[in-house]
Design goal:
The complex is a heterotrimer of chains A (266), B (270) and C (235). With 266 residues, chain A is an alpha/beta fold. In chain A, the strands form two sheets. Chain A has a six-stranded mixed beta sheet, sandwiched between helices. In chain A, strands 2-1-4 form a three-stranded antiparallel beta sheet, covered by helices on one side. Chain A is globular, with a radius of gyration of 19 Å. By secondary structure, chain B is of the alpha/beta class. Chain B has two domains: 128 residues, D-Maltodextrin-Binding Protein, domain 2 (3-Layer(aba) Sandwich); 112 residues, 3-Layer(aba) Sandwich (D-Maltodextrin-Binding Protein, domain 2), CATH 3.40.190.10. In chain B, strands 1, 2, 3, 4, 5, 6, 7, 8, 9 and 12 form a ten-stranded mixed beta sheet that branches. Chain B has a two-stranded antiparallel ribbon with strand order 10-11. In chain B, helix 6 crosses helix 7. Chain C is an all-alpha fold. Chain C is 80% helix and 0% strand. Chain C has eleven helices and no strands. In chain C, helix 3 crosses helix 5. Chain C starts with a helix and ends with a helix. Chains B and C meet through helix 1, helix 2, strand 2 and helix 8 of B and helix 2 and helix 9 of C.
């Protein structure tokens, strides 16, 4: 097997992304290194969290600015050192083990290596008895664990997770959190988005607060949850920040209906 | 797995594509009419010619108009049709070597058993058609520029009826072959003009019968023409001439005269 | 209704006897239509993939064009191919008119747009679903395409069957370019037309049922093949 290339630090410099005529990420400057092990990106819906993650992972190219992986600008040369788990698991029409096997094949591993890694990844995510089940016949929670197993099997230096528990029940979500925590303890850098503040409290060592495409605050988790410096972040923690209506933060909720305020019901 | 799947597919395609047509015997293309084919004549005489000469005759059966066009484009070696004026024009224009009269049969007017227009009361086909027009009785026309269609139009002209203005009312043009037109006539219980050969071999008569036959104006003459090798250098004129010679000679005439359906002779050699 | 029962009996006796002539006609039908579908697939699948995954000017035009071409009337295709292959046409020297090859050419033209359009649709849908994951894995274009083709194989086979169905059932094109010559270019559909024009409705319908049976057995064979291939488990 080829030597896995170095990927950290990941550096985003003046990164902007446009969708239509709207800027959805604005001049992001940001760097990630091995420590702290788990960075959580939080913020209201529409803040650009998922897009931030995709740009950082190299599957969406920024319109302006640059992303470097250990100095390298071409994401393809660093694809083998990172992995991503999507909010909706993208699984191919194969068995559970076939899905992991394909990913390893794409990464150029030989049959023997693939076999042991598949077994290991299935074991770590508790999916061993479902190895031969078609991926699409698994429950949603199992599918997300399989997506995680696939990422685990790739032994990435950085693992990106985009709201991996958003559609899971609490038990399944905890299982995924445990796996993620375990991974970070073996030295994998975790960069994860979440809109669940409790989950962020449980997992985060560092928090990035994103609002309308800008980083408003980046702080150690302890400090952030004690009392964020940014007024929007504070409003968000208090459950008062409504997307796209910055005005409402200052106006308070005074007598308005949810519809008027445009509360997102996702 | 994947490879096996793809390999099976490839082999299947190759095996099917690779097989060659077995026919290595010399052959000519004969452009003829659907009515001739539908009468079963070719099935009767061509094996005899093949036995005598070793030559395959591949029949492409279309309407007389289309057959003439095929031959004019050089897509046939020999032409066997039944519309004398067109045939003569074809030869005069230099597309054909010469026209030989081969055989004849006759047209018959087909109609419902009850004969609502009283066609059977007259002897003259033009008068019969005039009665149909006067009664507005349903009449089904080929409408496909075939020899039969051309003959039908000339009979209407003789009867002084302009069918074009009635098209879509009692006069129905099918724009298809003789058999298809007979099927339509049977379904509508309508009158139509057919060659006797197709009628005799036609199986789906339902309530139809011959209501008028035997008039001089209903004679149906077939001619055979070799496509000119001067126009189209690739024409197999030797084999084509061999076929024509056979058709108009003793054995050919016997073969043509010997084709019978239910004991009735369909074509009379000239 | 009598005709219908007679047709059933005729179909039964046709299959029961399965004489040399019928066998020859069935064989030619299969040979022409399978070859045409095979060639069309060989050209259409890469083309479908290119239009599905590629981003180039004129792509939308191509999509609309191929969708429209799915409705090509066979007779028109027959006429165009006739004019091309006629002795007076540009390809007359090849002497292909009234041969099975001419019929294959016409059917390839008929089938190609169907396979292009359907495979494009299938691959595009899969690509929308997979492209982020595949890019995340660092898959090369070749690896991505292979994953799409493999995962879409069940649907792609259905696209091929649709193409084959059109080829084996059409009569307008093969009648014109093949000429319905006995023992040379006579296939199931032209035989049916011929028998119908002779007023042999029972025989025509009987042949139609044989054709249906043929189509059915091919579909059963393909389904069985997929079943053995484990498709059912992974569907």
């Amino acid at each position: 097997m080829k030597e896995t290339p170095q990927i950290l630090p990941v550096t985003m410099a003046k990164v902007s992304v446009r969708r239509g005529d709207k800027m959805v990420l604005k001049e992001i400057d940001c760097q990630f290194d091995t420590a702290p092990a788990r960075t959580l990106i939080i913020g209201p819906n529409g803040a650009g969290k998922s897009l931030f993650l995709r740009v950082c992972h190299g599957i969406v190219a920024p319109d302006q600015g640059s992303v470097r992986w250990a100095g390298e600008t071409d994401p393809r040369t660093r694809a083998r050192a990172q992995a991503m788990v999507f909010q909706r698991p993208v699984l191919l029409r194969r068995s559970a083990r076939g899905n992991i096997d394909l990913a390893l094949k794409i990464h150029g591993l030989d049959a023997a290596q693939r076999r042991s890694r598949v077994a290991d990844a299935l074991d770590r995510t508790g999916l061993t008895r479902l190895a031969h089940t078609p991926a699409r016949a698994l429950s949603f929670g199992e599918q997300q664990r399989l997506a995680l197993a696939r990422a685990v099997a790739l032994r990435p230096q950085v693992l990106f997770l985009d709201e991996p528990t958003a559609n899971l029940d609490p038990a399944a979500a905890h299982l995924v959190e445990d796996i993620v925590r375990g991974l970070s303890e073996t030295g994998v850098k975790i960069i994860m988005t979440s809109h669940d503040l409790n989950q962020a409290r449980r997992l985060a060592q560092e928090v990035i607060f994103l609002h309308r495409g800008r980083i408003k605050e980046r702080a150690p988790a302890e400090d952030f949850f004690k009392g964020p410096e940014n007024d929007l972040a504070r409003a968000f923690l208090n459950g008062e920040l409504l997307w796209w209506r910055r005005r409402s933060v200052y106006d308070g909720l005074g007598g308005r209906t949810a519809d008027e305020l445009g509360i997102d019901r996702e | 797995m994947k490879l096996r799947f793809i390999r099976c597919l490839l082999i299947a395609v190759l095996v099917l594509a690779g097989r060659q047509v077995a026919a290595a015997a010399p052959f000519i293309i004969l452009a003829s009419t659907t009515s001739t084919q539908n009468s079963g004549l070719f099935d009767h005489i061509l094996p005899k010619f093949k036995a005598a000469s070793g030559v395959d005759v591949r029949v492409v059966a279309v309407g007389t108009g289309a057959a003439l066009r095929l031959a004019r484009n050089g897509d046939a070696d020999v032409l066997l049709v039944h519309h004398q004026p067109s045939e003569e024009a074809f030869v005069a224009a230099g597309y054909g070597v010469a026209r030989h009269a081969v055989m004849f049969n006759d047209f018959v007017i087909i109609g419902p058993e009850a004969d609502p227009a009283g066609v059977a009361k007259v002897k003259d086909p033009a008068a019969a058609l005039r009665r149909i027009a006067e009664q507005g009785a349903a009449f089904v026309s080929r409408g496909d520029d075939s020899g039969t269609h051309k003959r039908e139009l000339s009979l209407w002209a003789k009867a002084n009826v302009d069918v074009a203005v009635h098209s879509g009312t009692w006069y129905r043009e099918t724009g298809s072959g003789m058999g298809a037109t007979l099927n339509t006539a049977a379904a509508m219980n309508a009158y139509t003009l057919s060659d006797r050969g197709t009628w005799l071999s036609f199986q789906n008569r339902q309530g139809l019968k011959i209501v008028l036959q035997g008039d001089q104006n209903l004679r149906n003459q077939y001619g055979v023409i070799l496509v000119s090798p001067q126009r189209h250098g690739h024409v197999k004129f030797r084999l084509g001439q061999q076929f024509i010679d056979w058709l108009i000679s003793g054995p050919g005439k016997t073969a043509i005269g010997g084709h019978r359906i239910n004991g009735q002779q369909l074509f009379h050699p000239n | 209704m009598d005709e219908f029962w007679l047709a059933m009996v005729t179909a039964g006796s046709l299959i029961w006897q399965l004489d040399g002539d019928l066998w020859e006609i069935i064989g030619l039908s299969l040979r022409v239509s399978l070859t045409a579908t095979g060639i069309a697939a060989f050209l259409a699948l890469p083309l479908g993939a290119l239009i599905a995954l590629g981003r180039f000017p004129g792509r939308r035009v191509l999509i609309v064009l191929f969708n429209a071409l799915m409705g090509l009337p066979p007779v028109v295709v027959g006429l165009v191919v006739y004019l091309m292959l006629s002795r007076s046409g540009p390809f007359g020297v090849f002497n292909l008119l009234f041969t099975p090859t001419a019929m294959v050419i016409a059917q390839v033209i008929l089938v190609l747009p169907i396979i292009v359009s359907l495979s494009r649709e299938i691959l595009e849908t899969l690509w929308q679903e997979y492209h982020e994951a595949l890019r995340s894995l660092g898959a090369s274009p070749g690896q991505s395409l292979f994953a799409l083709l493999w995962d879409g194989r069940a649907m792609l086979v259905t696209a091929l069957l649709a193409g084959f169905g059109r080829a084996v059932a059409e009569v307008g094109a093969v009648m014109i370019v093949g000429g319905n010559i006995d023992h040379v270019t006579r296939v199931m559909t032209t035989s049916i037309t011929l028998e119908a024009s002779k007023g042999n409705l029972a025989l025509a319908l009987g042949l139609g049922m044989v054709l249906l049976l043929l189509s059915l057995s091919i579909n059963i064979a393909v389904y069985g093949f997929r079943y053995i291939g484990g498709e059912r488990r992974l569907a």
